[in-house]
Specification:
The complex is a heterodimer of chains A (about 260) and B (about 900). By secondary structure, chain A is α+β, with helices and mostly antiparallel strands. Chain A has five helices and 14 strands. Classes of the chains: A alpha+beta (about 260), B mainly beta (about 900).
Amino acid sequence: MEGDLPPMKVSPQDTLDFSKMRVQYQVWMMKDTLYPQKLTEDMIMLQIGSKISKSLNYFKMISDSITHQQIISGAGINEMLAVNQGRRTGDQSLRASLFKNYPAGEITTMDQIFTDRFYFEEDIPDFQWKLEKGELKVLGYSCKKATVTFRGRTYEAWYAPEIPVSDGPWKFSGLPGLILKVSDTKKQYIFEAVAISGVSWQDPVTFSKSSLFMKTSRENFNKAMKRFMDNPAAGMQNSDKIQVAPESLAKVKARPYNPIELE
Amino acid sequence: MINKHLYSACFIFWTLLNPGYLAAQVVIEGSIYEKTTKEPLSHAVITLSDISGNDIVAYKQSDKNGFFSLQTAAFNDTLKLSVSLLGYSSESRLVTAKNQQFRFELYPKEIELREVYVKPPDIWKRGDTINYNVAELKSAQDRSIGDLLKKLPGVEVNESGGILYNGKPINKFYIEGLDLLESKYAIATNNVPVDAVSNVQVFENHQYVKALKDVVASEQAAINLKLKEGKMSRPIGKTKIGSGFSPFLWNLDLFGLQAAKERQTLVMYKANNTGHDIALDLSSHTLNFSDILSGIEPLPQDLLQPSAFESLDLAEKYYLFNRTHVLTLNNLWKLNEHSQFRVNINYLNDKRNQDLGQYSGYYLPDTDSLLSIEENNQLNNRTNLLETNLTFTKNSPETYLNNSLKFQGRWRDVSSDITGTNQVNQHFNIPLFYLQNDLNLVKHRGKKVFQFDSFTRYSTLPQQLNVTADTLNNPLSQDMARSTFYTNNKTSFGYARPSYNLLFDVQLQAKTENFDSDMNFMLFPAEGNNQIKTENLILYIGPQFTYRKDGFTLNFRLPLSSNNLTVKNSLTDDRKDYSFLFIEPSLSLRYKAGSFWTVNFNFQHKNETGDILDFPVSYYMTNYRYLRRGTSVLEKRQWQTYSLRAAYRNTIEAFFFNFSILYKTGLYNVLNNTSFRNGISLVAPIEFDNQRDNWSLNGYIAKYMDGIKTNFSLSGNYTRMKMERLQQNVKVPVTSQTVFLQPKIDMKATNRFSIAYHAKVLNNRTEINKLEQKNHNSLNQIGQQLKFFFFPSSRWQLNLQFEHLYNDITENLSSKLFFMDMGLAYQLKNMEFSLDWTNIFNQKSYAYTMDDGLNIFSRNYRLRPCSVMFNIHFNF
């Protein structure tokens, strides 16, 4: 007896815009300030549309697009074993998706804590950039320097006036050119463009409408994330399916927490 | 001219006075449009710079109307105003320091980018794999890989070594990509030394059947251990050796694993007499809901019930008197890219003793009197269990074939010496043998999927009971056997669309059973022999409809089964034929209302029938105090269940709440009657329609307080059961109510110190009509536990535990116990020393009472004495 294939589960998506170019940034993060020599790597992709831009975790984007397009990978377990050191380590890497100018004038951030997914909106920050002297070549583009203090960290950014896009990785924007490199002065967060491409195909900037995302505010989200990192097991024991014995609870250590936003 | 100079002079003077503020502002405004359509263009970058373009004086972006406004201090030179927008031509004009307005019209233009590509990392085609570097996460306390797995986000490891990922059990546990242990992976979680592992990989949404990859999404994850290079060529392992008193205590663990990519071997031997139940290491973990739903019948229960070795509401280390050896051998060969062959052999040798005083009070409603039996029971249990499992698996993108052939032999002997009212010795010989074959086949061709599952099992329980008693002239002996051949063959097909799907299950089940019992001694004038044979054929069609929209899910099932049963009694030549058609609709609704609320509703209608044990018309003994028989009437049970659940989860405020209510009502066609003769219970069903009602309310509320790093929770449960009972041929309605409350406080002050306080309060209340009068009985049980954990340094660990138990025994009598335990551990790189001091106050016995409305059972168990145990663990 045979039948049609049931489709894979895909959460509904809205297309907000179409991207004009894509920029891929390598990210280095100091997750634990006790081990300053150890930086964790991650990769984010910035899709720049004519009105809206989306910054998302590169690895998440790929796994999502695999699910979405049902690419038949044929990759077996043994091939999976060959996977390089994973960058998607889940707990503190930049795996949030950010939508700039969606809704108009605001940024929507979608992120998760343990198994719970959240989204929040905030005004596009008014970065008080100071344009400074200095020049740096990034990917062959000559970049100019600007500095800003934003939510507890002072950043040094390098933007390319040659690319007339007032955007950048994560929440950064507002310079007369695309930010290709930005890092805080303590070198705990470093973003650097590693690939730039125009888009010759229809590249939709999609937004997941899944009702699994709960609305909150930036302040509350950061507070809950800090709580989870301080005491990960406390969050788990209330997830009503999991029983955590006090012995295990005692052994679960606080996780190092060095968020990009300090205030 | 003069005017202008004056202006400048004033300006200079003014700026000198106000160095921080340049007063004269120049406002340059403008609008940007598309050249042909005249649509305003937003997000264009407007810069004001020197003529070379190097020094930017001011910049802005155009708004949604294409408008911009640049404000800048007055300047002397001529500056350049440039307008550019990705995908459009750029324009620039020269400007002088005066307020002015511009209109720009840009035309679309090919984007000119110097493109730079990077090679996509290998992860591109890999699905959702998360890699963890063990060296990064490992801390000094971690010994087995299970200790480390607990620290990974989303991973939970339960007490017996089972793993949950994001709240769901994992579906595979691989070592170097091979599934060596299948569902018994707890052996690995508890024993693979953390030092042997280089990486832990979590495969999210893991579909292990390659033929179903990209066809059926999986919500379960799998875990893979990658071993360190040097650890693959030689065996790795760990040992634990320990000794203590009193009495003489010992404990030995040996574990070895050789895991290459083509062949893997795992050997484990464990033994102890310390009250630690190592048989748990052999338990299964990946049995999940879908296995239960797939309708495989559980193994028949033992015919003889020694009424012993029940697990108590108390840690085993306090009451389990044991001497246990466990040996497990696992071998896996990879035959080619897609095929593998596996042999798993487990052997258990377990000796247990239990010493208990038991009081049973049976209410005799015909005479309104109480039959009391008081006796001591000394139980010795000896179990030998051998299990072998041969599995062949082919897992290619077109075909998945898994065939597993399993044999289990269990030899179990229980002797029970009873002293008290009577002197009785019972000897139970309770073996169980079964051979089963489980075949799963999935074929994937083009857009079609074909699935077939076939399960076949033969089981036999040739069990024997011998009784000698001071009231018996001759020893009593009884032989009993139940053998079952069972097969279940299943295929399923479906039709699916994004918002709904329709699935059909077709099952053909066949079962033949034999039941024989033979008592050598006529205790009562009744036939002592039974010889029954049943044949059962079930055809099952299970249509299932699922609809999903936004947060709403509806699932409706309408299983239809045709059930044909033939029962033959060889002794009476009696033959009965039954034929039923069952329709068992069920409906489940789930609605995710808003961000935090989830509401579920379920309804189920279920028909159940009895089995071969309904037909033996002569009594058979299950133990010295229980004789049972059937009545040749097939039991029919009809259940309806309604449940409603609402849950609120707010992680942001760390506040959780859920509430559920369940009502279950059943109609039965027979009711067991218990009558007593010479202190022996005779249980026989009587044909009589009766109803049973159950109500159950459950609630949970929890709040985490950030300031004191403490989680407070309270769970509560209320159940009410109403049914009729038959005792001494008198019908007695019984109502029983249970209230259970469980408050918990968990405080994790720092990484070095935590406290947990858990309590349980249980009240059981029964109500029966005794001679037109209502009679109540109420029993309380209270347990409290306080635990402290200290980690004074990364090498030392100290824990302290206090436990207080209160159980009502009778109206005026209660049992109070106070336990204290202490543990100390010290760790070196490949070694650990631990010292455990258990039952410090040397509590000697544990007692409790159960009341089922009609009868009261009190038990008093002897406990293990105060003990001290020293262990050394080391890894190699």
